[in-house]
């Protein structure tokens, strides 16, 4: 079996006690790396200031070598904060209004990808399979090919891929699309993202859809497909059952005694629809006064990318809105919204999911959304809660037992909250069983196996006709 080389912007390092880092994706990839032997390479998260970064720092754990590189301050500013998070992230989440183009940032993005390729290439053996993750590293394969690497290289995009009309507003859309064609397999979260990709090739006249997932573009034949990511369903369900006894979860249970609890869990990000969701909760309470003092909404929102101005602004808006609703509707003995603006342990999170009558997952746009899947997996099979899910999350294409909402429609979301709270136990069980069965049969290990299986079987690339 060939060695596997995973490349991602950040690398989930194993905990000091040797156990794998938490989180389904990390666990699944670490298992695949452990089985085949391999390397996980990425940015250390550290900056070397304005000096050229030193050598890669390497850590060996079993069969896996973790290889981390620092970046300079300029690299972090232009590649990470600049192009990746202020151009690609908003564009892929359909937010043309938030994209900030700058030549410096675009150049920095391609430069850092070249730098990654130069650091990675000396470690690669001819039979290695390379799996690149996410929007930070789209041009990596092209850079590796430029250096003469002939290895199988796959790419998986964790976030949505927008329709052509949106993508073409980005000044370097051609270079980005050319970058994708240098992979042997390009994986998206959903069919819809895949159709957007194929639609762009067709519309811009730069590629042919050959059928069976094969595409011909920029002189290369490659495969593209939808590979909806899953979670470690069975493991997470057991974990949540145990976590229900965690002291913090017990304390929370006592503190909401006699009330229903609704939970929302999101990185603080404008794509997650937190502001619209708080509005929907307020509307629900004002149009269903009988529920006042009967429901507590817990919003867990760890800070994210706080150094990017849009995120700093969001943080202020969410805090203000939660405070305003609490001030307007809360009473001396009831706080409608409990807002936690930091990360909580995975253990407590799993227990809280299980405690909540409703999981409120209403992103304006999301590649998949693992919180929706974790909420379902964490439920007590005898008394499962209800998932209220945005139709614009990739997960909505699979979780048919959810109450689907349009998060822009505040009243519609408020009505779904009311419907969820009033739902009979029988209907809750039926909806939950349907979703749980799907999640058990489509977990993250299968996702990993499917992607790697298809990458190995991807067609031999045709010799390149054009030069980059
Ligand atoms: C990207 C795509 C796609 C959240 N708060 C805490 C915490 N979390 C964990 C959740 C979940 C993960 O973070 C978030 O995953 P999501 O999928 O919801 O969202 P993104 O971070 O935007 O991920 C997304 C995903 O990649 C995978 O492909 O689904 O569409 O945007 O696992 O549980 N974990 C802990 N404390 C917290 O406070 N421990």
Assign the structural class, choosing from mainly alpha, mainly beta, alpha/beta, alpha+beta, or little secondary structure. alpha/beta
Assembly annotation: single chain
Number of strands: 16
Describe the global form.
globular
Strand order of the largest sheet: 3-4-2-1-5-6-7-10-9-8
CATH topology of the largest domain: Rossmann fold
Bound compounds: GDP-alpha-D-glucose
Number of helices: 16
The overall pLDDT average reads: 94
Helix content: 40-55%
Q: What Rg, in angstroms, do the CA atoms define?
A: 23 Å
Distance between the termini: 32 Å
List the helices and strands and how they pair.
Blueprint: E1 4-10, H1 24-36, E2 38-47, E3 57-61, E4 64-71, H2 73-92, H3 103-120, E5 129-133, H4 140-146, E6 152-156, H5 164-167, H6 173-180, E7 185-188, H7 191-204, E8 207-211, E9 214-217, E10 220-226, H8 233-243, H9 247-256, E11 260-265, H10 274-287, E12 295-300, H11 309-329, E13 337-340, H12 346-355, E14 358-361, H13 370-377, E15 386-390, E16 403-405, H14 410-422, H15 425-441, H16 444-457
Parallel strand pairs: 1-2, 1-5, 2-4, 5-6, 6-7, 7-10, 11-12, 11-14, 12-13, 14-15, 15-16
Antiparallel strand pairs: 3-4, 8-9, 9-10
Helix pairs in contact: 1-16, 2-3, 3-4, 8-12, 9-12, 10-11, 10-14
This protein binds GDP-alpha-D-glucose.
């Amino acid at each position: 079996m060939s060695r596997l080389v995973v490349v991602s912007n950040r690398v989930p390092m194993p905990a000091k006690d040797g156990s794998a880092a938490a989180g389904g994706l990390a666990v699944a990839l670490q298992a695949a790396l452990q089985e085949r032997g391999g390397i996980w390479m990425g940015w250390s998260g550290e900056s070397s200031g304005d000096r050229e970064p030193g050598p890669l720092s390497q850590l060996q754990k079993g069969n896996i070598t973790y290889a981390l590189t620092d970046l300079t301050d300029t690299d972090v500013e232009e590649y990470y904060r600049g192009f990746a998070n202020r151009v690609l992230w908003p564009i892929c989440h359909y937010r043309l209004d938030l994209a900030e183009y700058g030549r410096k940032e675009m150049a920095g993005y391609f430069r850092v990808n070249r730098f990654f390729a130069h650091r990675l290439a000396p470690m690669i053996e001819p039979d290695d399979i390379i799996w690149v993750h996410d929007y930070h590293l789209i041009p990596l394969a092209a850079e590796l090919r430029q250096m003469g690497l002939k290895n199988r290289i796959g790419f998986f995009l964790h976030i949505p891929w927008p329709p052509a009309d949106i993508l073409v507003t980005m000044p370097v859309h051609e270079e980005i699309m050319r970058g994708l064609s240098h992979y042997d397999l390009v994986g998206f979260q959903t069919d819809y993202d895949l159709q957007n990709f194929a639609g762009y090739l067709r519309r811009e006249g730069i590629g042919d859809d050959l059928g069976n997932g094969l595409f011909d573009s920029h002189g290369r034949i490659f495969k593209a497909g939808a590979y909806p990511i899953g979670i470690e369903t069975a493991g997470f369900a057991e974990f949540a059952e145990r976590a229900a006894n965690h002291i913090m979860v017990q304390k929370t249970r006592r503190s909401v005694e006699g009330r229903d609890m609704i939970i929302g869990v999101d990185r603080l990000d404008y794509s997650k629809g937190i502001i619209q969701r708080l509005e929907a909760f307020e509307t629900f309470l004002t149009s269903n006064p009988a529920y006042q003092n009967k429901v507590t909404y817990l919003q867990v929102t760890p800070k994210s990318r706080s150094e990017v101005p849009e995120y700093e602004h969001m943080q202020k808006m969410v805090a203000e809105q939660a405070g305003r609703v609490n001030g307007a509707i809360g009473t001396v003995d009831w706080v409608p919204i409990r807002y936690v603006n930091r990360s909580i342990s995975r253990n407590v999170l799993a227990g809280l999911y299980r405690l909540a009558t409703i999981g409120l997952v209403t992103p304006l746009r999301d590649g998949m959304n693992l919180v929706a899947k974790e909420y379902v997996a964490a439920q007590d099979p005898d008394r499962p809660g209800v998932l209220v899910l945005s139709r614009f999350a990739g997960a909505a294409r699979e979780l048919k037992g959810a109450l689907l909402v349009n998060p822009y429609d505040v009243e519609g979301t408020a009505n779904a909250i009311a419907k969820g709270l009033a739902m009979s136990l029988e209907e809750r069980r039926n909806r939950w069983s349907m979703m749980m069965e799907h999640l058990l049969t489509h977990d993250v290990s299968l996702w990993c196996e499917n992607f790697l299986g298809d990458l190995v079987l991807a067609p031999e690339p045709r010799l390149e006709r054009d030069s980059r």
